[in-house]
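pinning this so it doesn't scroll away 📌
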Amino acid sequence: MDNYSSKLIEDAVNQISKLPGIGKKTALRLVLHLLKEKPEDVQLLTGSILKVRNEIKYCKICHNISDNEICSICSNIKRDKSLVCVVQDIRDVIAIENTAQFNGVYHVLGGIISPIDGIGPDDLNIKSLIEKAASGSIKEIIMALSSTIEGDTTVYYLNKKLKVYNIRVTIIARGVSIGDELEYIDEVTLGRSILNRTLYDIK
């Protein structure tokens, strides 16, 4: 058991170490760093975290994070609304946007089908995607999901659902290695995989 000599320090370390990728040692280093900062700077940090938690919204159209009911991408008149890129989560939107190679809009599923984790189609934002397809305003849907078994299963399921709407369904080029998560792929490779997407034609 670690001895922090202060219950306040111990509580702060325990809370920060709950964050993904942060162990007790890193948490302690962060807490000690905050002790050296000006109180107003620490207040700004904690205030911004609380504000994100309490005030962040999810776009009514694409389910991306947003400050407003409709995100800045969906509300941008310069974006091609007939081109929809389906991604697993918000981190993938950020990764693709950083490539500056995509001018369509997104649809955030909020996960991928994974029976082992108890995640089925009903747990994802699939119904709203089907409704978009049924509206007749979409020309192409790009499947930009991680090339894992779960990702491929999700793509297969979505393609079956979308087939009746006669929409072009494509998948990002396999310059992305099998098993890769999109958020960890370099921007050049990810950008090329979007531009060199291929028709998804599994029957």
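📌 and the second one:
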Amino acid sequence: MVASDPVSSATREPEAPRTVMSIDEWAALPEDEPGELVDGYLVEEEMPGLLHEMVVGWLYFALRWWVTQRGGLVFGSEAKFAVSPRSGRKPDLTLYLPGHPVLPRRGAVRVPPDVAVEVVTLTPRDVRRDRVQKVDDYAAFGVRYYWIVDPEQRTFEVLELGDDGRYVRALGATGGTLPVVPGCEGLVLDLDELWREADKLGSADGS
């Protein structure tokens, strides 16, 4: 005998219909309204934990110290980029090298950054989004370098956009000091220091 559904179809709340949204409507959403735009629909973002935030913060200050004295800019995770006419992404970090075009003070950014950075989280959906979906999005948008940082696996990858519009792996590392980072002359990243910062946190359950 099959057990009946404790919540009948007569009392179950209907799902709200999804509303198609334009890039400019998405960009105009309040700051406390999370989500990225994919094919015209708002989709929820990853739910980062302290490890994710620590790595993003470490990279932000490393990049800011290096690029601002050269005339470049670095932005955090709330910057909204119109990667296509119907899709918008919010990378964890973005970097504009010296000589970049004028950028808007508000609204969706339609100028591709020189570098987009994503810090991978553990869930399969977020891994797929960072390693598959966003690879295609950022390549089509024209982001020259895409960094994928996985603090759980302790990997640092740089993908470089080729003349054919596809990414190729320009750098892969798991530790040590990186004296040369593709596209970022003079930038030195100490991955061992970054992982030591990560080690200050406990396990997933806080033990």
